[in-house]
Amino acid sequence: MRKLAVILLFLCITPAYGSPGVDSPGLGRVGPQTFVRPAGRSGEAIGTLAPTNQFDQFVRYSAEKRYFEAMASNTAYFRDVFTGGETFHASPNDGDSFSARMYGPDGSLVSTWYPIVFYSSYNGQQNCWVGSLSGTICGTTSIYITWFIQSQCFTDGTYQMDFLYNGQPFSSGSFDLLPEIPPDSLPTDLSIYNQGMYDGSDPTRDHYDKRCYVTDPDDRHNCDDRAGEKLIFIKKLGCYLSAAALVTTYHGVALTPPELNTILNASENPNGYNNGCVDPEVVAKVATDRGVPMSFIGREGTSTLMHNICAYGPQLMGVNCDSGVPGHWVLAIGIDRGTNSYKIVNPSGGRVTTLYDRYHTFCATRVFSGPEYVVTIKSRIVATFHSPVELLLTDPMGRRLGRDPVTGQLYEEIPHAYYNDVGLDDDETGDREIDPPKELYLPRPDSGDYSLIVLGTGDGTYTADFEAADVNGTESTSQIQNVPISTGEIQNLSFHYDSTAGSTTTLQLAGGYDGGGQRPRDVNKFLSYGNPSESQTQLAAGTQTFPLLIFYGPETDPSTFLAELDRNDVTALFNPQPGTSEIVELPLGSGRNVLKVSIDGQLPNRTATDTDRLVFMVP
Fold it and tell me: What is the mean pLDDT of the chain?
């Protein structure tokens, strides 16, 4: 196919999205445009030859290639930024006009182009073609005209164009706009993205992340050289990895699943994986570092998937859903007209198929954007809890993310944020990971105070890792370790997040219960508690200890800390350090146990004391 010339006009056009004639909020839409180029004839006298008007071809300006080309088999795609037709005109009469119009799939008029008029003499020049949008070209009696309109995310179907000479059609034709990305925008050999190819025949190449197991492949851990340890390969868990590699390849950074796996594990990307889950922000960074700007936008509702494909390109689709959370990932590339089902590239097999063919439904999407749209804000919060727990987060605006500890309902009310609490399927056996880590992922979060409910789903301990980045991507981390929890037990945490670049407290952890008694906005925060969550706690008969999860504010003075349990000094049980937390096993007896704790902290203009009284009742 021959490329068509592109003029500077295209370099300053921002694609907009919507149905014909309907602009999307916040985005400008470019109306019908023309591009005129001389055809080479210039010498014949006007009137010596009969006028010639011919339709040449339909053209498309794809988001992938970013230049005009002829449509193959009169077919366009919904990611095409512009579509239209090209005509040839020669030997016109003085005052002849040329125009075009387009009709949509429902027969309605989509657009009418302003005419281009030929003048034998115009402003002192000869043989001029004058258009209100295309400007003026003189010195030729033959030209090509490209009539095009911004069409990205137009409704799919058949579009007709009429090409007019002096107001009357001299040619008509139609092209088909398909609701999918162009087939040639993906690699010809998709078997490279079949995760099943990477089965351990080359252990160095095929090892997935740093994941291992001993006896049960679904009981996974980061490899630590324990006895009997076996590697886990891309074949088992590489669905998201393979789909993400295909996304970067589509946008211009050609990577195979093993190549992306190696990069994510390299020292330059220490957080490329998070407990066996691909970090999508790092995937986008990998492409950006290689000259193709990409961004990870986050989770979107399932109803917006088609818009996101036509706006940004192929998107990850979550299938094999358990309680609204996917265990397998495929790449969605559009709609198959024959079945009216999503077209997908399935890493399990490495081929194009349909959603209905194997999975029927999906429950999640993860949205990446390519070089056309790059989100420059790099702030995020990632909280990972190593089971046995479920989580429910509430942001400063009262929106929830996670599972309700009472009803089990999944909430995803925070835009673009998501909660992973299922773990990836083993794509060989179909089994789920045993007690996987739980992850809260918030791209571009609001600054403010967050509350977090932690529900015990078993008896044991959990460790929680918090990672926060400001608007420049500068990261800070926090961790709480080996927190005891039992089935059905609810603990409450909180944290303050500040996205301001260079903030000294990007994320500050605290307990969800502040003990009460003092000024709540500051003094009460010197001491706070993840467990207990109220001033009086009823315990089971025979309880001998209580795991107190206590947080010390960053403004506190450890030397002033005092603790009494039933009027006995137990200060030595505690190790207060500003901005930290610890578990203290309180010894309890039958009846009423009263703990009194206090600490001084520095306010802007004075020193204040936070004193709390906690009661533990043991029958």
Answer: 89
Residues 6 or more apart in contact with residue 36 via CB below 8 angstroms: 116, 129, 131, 134, 135, 137, 143, 144, 145, 146
- Residues 515-574: pLDDT tens digits? 988 887 889 999 999 999 999 999 999 999 999 999 999 999 999 999 999 999 999 999
Q: Which residue has the higher pLDDT, 40 or 234?
A: 234
CA atoms within 13 A on the CB side of 476: 18
pLDDT per residue as tens digits for the range 419-466: 988 778 888 887 878 778 899 999 999 999 999 999 999 999 999 999
pLDDT for 80 beyond 90: yes
Strand order in the sheet with 438-443: 418-420, 438-443, 380-386, 460-469, 475-485
C-alpha radius of gyration, the chain, whole number: 32
Q: From the centroid of its chain, how far is CA 406? A: 29
Residue type, 241: L
Tell me the two tokens of residue 300. 């979107």
Q: Which domains does the chain have, with CATH numbers?
A: 8-178 (2.60.40.1930), 186-314+321-328 (no CATH), 377-512 (no CATH), 517-619 (2.60.40)
Rounded to whole angstroms, the Cα distance separating 194 from 316 reads: 15
Report the Cα–Cα distance between both ends of the chain, in Å, rounded.
Answer: 85
pLDDT tens profile 205-216: 999 999 999 999
Q: Positive or negative CA dihedral for 324, 330, 331, 332?
A: negative
Task: Give the count of beta carbons closer than 10 Å to the beta carbon of residue 215.
Answer: 7
Separation of alpha carbons 133 and 36, rounded Å:
10
Residue 496 near residue 508, CB atoms below 8 Å: yes
For residue 3, pLDDT beyond 60: no
Give the predicted TM-score (pTM) of the model: 0.84
Burial of 427 (0-12, 13-18, 19+ CB in 10 A): buried
**For residue 528, which phi and psi values (nearest 5 degrees)?**
-145, 170
**Between the CA atoms of 113, 118, 119 and 124, what dihedral angle is there, to the nearest 10 degrees?**
80
